[in-house]
Design goal:
The protein has 124 residues and is an alpha+beta fold. The chain has a domain at 4-88: 2-Layer Sandwich (GMP Synthetase, Chain A, domain 3). It is 41% helix and 15% strand. Strands 1-2-3 form a three-stranded mixed sheet. Strand 1 (24-30) and strand 2 form a beta hairpin. Helix 1 runs antiparallel to helix 3. The longest helix has 16 residues, at 54-69. The protein starts with a helix and ends with a helix. Residues 87-107 have low confidence and may be disordered.
C-alpha cells in the first residue's frame, strides 16, 4: 500500500510529465525520515525540475507539508535517467560540466555599478 506522501508525489509528477507511465517512486524509511526516490523519462526531466530548479523546489516544499501532517520528515531525490544530459560528466558537479564558453553564452554581461548608474541616468 502506498503512503500519502508517495501518492501525492505520484499524482503531482504524473500531472506534469509527458510519459506518466515511466514515473516510478521508491519509498524508504530510516532514522532520517522518509526518502522518496523518483525515476522518470529523460525527456521529462526539465518539466519536473523546472527553470532554475523552481518546480522541484516547490514539490519538495509541498512534500514537507504532507510529511508534517503525518509527523514525518520527507525528502525527495530525483534520479538521473539513462541518457540524461548529465551522463558521462564530472561526478563532483553531478555529472555536468559547465565550460566558460557555455556560461558566458547564457549569462548577461556584468556591468560595474558606475556603468549601471550611468545607464539609469540616461534613461530618464
Amino acid at each position: 500500500m502506498m503512503e500519502k506522501d508517495q501518492e501525492f508525489l505520484e499524482f503531482v509528477v504524473k500531472g506534469l510529465v509527458d510519459h506518466p507511465e515511466d514515473v516510478k517512486i521508491n519509498r524508504t524509511v530510516d532514522e532520517m525520515g522518509v526518502l522518496l526516490m523518483l525515476d522518470i523519462n529523460a525527456e521529462d526531466m526539465g518539466k519536473v525540475i523546472g527553470r532554475s530548479g523552481n518546480t522541484a523546489k516547490a514539490i519538495r516544499t509541498l512534500l514537507r507539508v504532507v510529511g508534517m501532517k503525518n509527523n514525518a520528515r520527507v525528502n525527495l531525490k530525483i534520479n538521473e535517467p539513462e541518457g540524461g544530459l548529465r551522463q558521462g560528466g564530472d561526478s563532483a558537479t553531478g555529472g555536468y560540466v559547465h565550460t566558460q564558453h557555455e556560461v558566458s553564452a547564457h549569462a548577461p554581461a556584468m556591468k560595474s555599478v558606475d556603468e549601471a548608474m550611468e545607464e539609469l541616468g540616461n534613461s530618464f
